[in-house]
Design brief:
13% of the residues lie in helices and 41% in strands. It has a seven-stranded mixed sheet, with no helix packed on it. The radius of gyration is 16 Å and the shape is globular. The protein contains six helices and 16 strands. It starts with 5 loop residues before the first strand and ends with a helix. The protein has a single domain (3-236), classed as 2-Layer Sandwich (60s Ribosomal Protein L30, Chain: A), CATH 3.30.1330.80. By secondary structure, the chain is mostly beta strands. GO terms for molecular function: acetolactate decarboxylase activity. This is Alpha-acetolactate decarboxylase. InterPro entries: Acetolactate_a_deCO2ase (IPR005128). It catalyses: (2S)-2-acetolactate + H(+) = (R)-acetoin + CO2.
C-alpha cells in the first residue's frame, strides 16, 4: 500500500486520559512518517501544528514557537504526507458548516484530512498548559486551558476527521488546529469563520496506530473505559 494514503498516529487520546503525558516519539522520527499534522509535546505542552515538514508549537501564554530541535518529544501526534484527494468545493466555511459542506464525500466511516488557507473573520482557539509529573489526566487539564481569539487573521487550518468507532484512539469527528501566516498565533480550534478558502481534502485507506512499547508507564497503564468517549469529547471540545 502506498504510504501516501496512510494516516500515521503515535499514541492515543485514551493514553492522555490515562495520565500518560510523557514524550515517546521524537520530532526526527515523526517526520519520517509525514509532513503535515497535529499533536502536542511532552506534558501536553501546547498545541502542535506540522506544516510543510516544519513543526510549530502554540503555547499557553499565547506565543508560538518553531520547533527545530529534532530530539523534542511528543506523547500524541498524527501526521501524513500531503497528497490531496481533491480541492475543497467551497470558498467560505466554519465550524458549524464544514461537515455539511463535505457531506457528499461520505466521511462518516473513514479517516480524512483537511488543509486549507483562508482569511478568518473569527478564530477561537485553546491551548493546553504544560503539566509536570505526576501527570494529571487530559480531562483534568481541559478544565483549565488558555483560550485566545483573533479577528481578521489569515492562516492555515490542518487536521482530521475520524469515525466515531475510533473514539479512544483519537477524537471522533473533527480535530483541527490553526497556524497564522505570520507564525505568531495558533492552537486547537474551538470555533472559526473563514472566507477566501483555498485548500484540499485527503482521504486515507489506511490508519496506522503506533504504540510506545518501550515505555514502561504505558505498558502498566490501567484505563477506566466507562464514559471514555464522552470524556474525550469533553476534553477536545470538537464538533462532529
Amino acid at each position: 500500500m502506498n504510504i501516501m494514503s496512510s494516516l500515521y498516529q503515535h499514541g492515543t487520546l485514551a493514553m492522555l486520559m490515562g495520565k500518560q503525558l510523557q514524550g515517546t516519539i521524537t520530532v526526527a522520527e515523526l517526520l519520517t512518517h509525514g509532513d503535515t499534522g497535529i499533536g502536542t509535546l511532552t506534558g501536553l505542552d501546547g498545541e502542535v501544528i506540522v506544516l510543510d515538514g516544519e513543526v510549530y508549537q502554540a503555547t499557553s501564554d499565547g506565543k508560538l514557537n518553531h520547533i527545530t530541535d529534532k530530539d523534542t518529544k511528543m506523547p500524541f501526534v498524527s501526521v501524513h504526507f500531503n497528497q490531496p484527494t481533491r480541492r475543497l468545493p467551497f470558498s467560505e466555511t466554519s465550524t458549524d458548516t464544514l461537515s455539511q459542506q463535505l457531506k457528499s464525500e461520505k466521511l462518516t466511516n473513514i479517516f480524512a484530512a483537511v488543509k486549507f488557507h483562508g482569511d478568518f473573520s473569527n478564530m477561537h482557539v485553546r491551548v493546553a498548559q504544560k503539566q509536570e509529573t505526576p501527570y494529571p489526566s487530559l480531562l483534568e487539564v481541559a478544565t483549565n486551558q488558555s483560550e485566545f481569539q483573533e479577528k481578521d487573521i489569515s492562516g492555515t487550518i490542518v487536521g482530521y476527521f475520524a469515525p466515531s468507532v475510533f473514539s479512544g484512539p483519537t477524537a471522533a469527528g473533527w480535530h483541527i488546529h490553526f497556524l497564522s501566516d505570520d507564525k505568531k498565533f495558533g492552537g486547537h480550534i474551538l470555533d472559526f469563520e473563514g472566507q477566501n478558502i483555498d485548500g484540499t481534502l485527503q482521504i486515507f485507506d489506511e490508519f496506522r496506530q503506533h504504540f510506545p512499547l518501550e515505555d514502561s508507564d504505558f505498558r502498566d497503564m490501567s484505563l477506566n473505559l466507562e464514559g471514555l468517549s464522552d470524556d474525550i469529547a469533553t476534553s477536545e471540545g470538537g464538533k462532529q
